[in-house]
């Protein structure tokens, strides 16, 4: 059974940083294409970044390119999203996705 559990969200000031984690079970992150998406209140899902299975090729949305970094730890079977230079508009619930599965999300609030 595929399970994805996000963590690491919280309240951070503009310009600050957070690292989100997505612990996976039921499959190996090393060979899976995985993504981070987010949903701000009252808005639709926004794709942020993907890391491709087997080759670690990464892609980013323009809105986060240069500020966010996706990575994975194969030994921990965990996906990460390092978020730097956070802006108020980054406030949202963040989810990891794999093969049509999505976790429960973790709230990120950027506010002074």
Please characterize this protein's 3D structure.
0% of the residues lie in helices and 52% in strands. It has no helices and 11 strands. The protein is mainly beta and 112 residues long.
What features would you highlight for this structure?
112 residues; mainly beta; 7-stranded mixed sheet; 4-stranded antiparallel sheet; 11 strands; globular
Q: What is shown here, in short?
A:
With 112 residues, the chain is mainly β.
Given the C-alpha coordinates, what overall shape results? Answer: globular
Residue share in helices?
A: under 10%
Return Rg in Å.
Answer: 13 Å
Strand content: over 45%
Low-confidence residue ranges: none
Question: By helix and strand content, what is the structural category?
Answer: mainly beta
Average predicted local confidence, pLDDT? 97
Contiguous helical run count: 0
What is the N-to-C order of secondary-structure elements (H for helix, E for strand)? EEEEEEEEEEE
Total strand segments: 11
Sheet bearing the most strands, described? 7 strands, mixed
Distance between the termini: 40 Å
């Amino acid at each position: 059974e595929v399970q994805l559990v996000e963590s690491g969200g919280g309240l951070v000031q503009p310009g600050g940083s957070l690292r989100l984690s997505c612990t996976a079970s039921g499959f190996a992150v090393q060979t899976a294409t995985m993504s981070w998406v987010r949903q701000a209140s009252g808005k639709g899902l926004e794709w942020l970044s993907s890391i491709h299975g087997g080759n670690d090729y990464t892609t980013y949305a323009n809105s986060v390119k240069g500020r966010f970094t996706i990575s994975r730890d194969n030994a921990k079977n965990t996906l990460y999203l390092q978020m730097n230079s956070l802006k108020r508009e980054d406030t949202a619930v963040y989810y990891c996705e794999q093969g049509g599965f999505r976790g429960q999300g973790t709230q990120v609030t950027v506010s002074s």
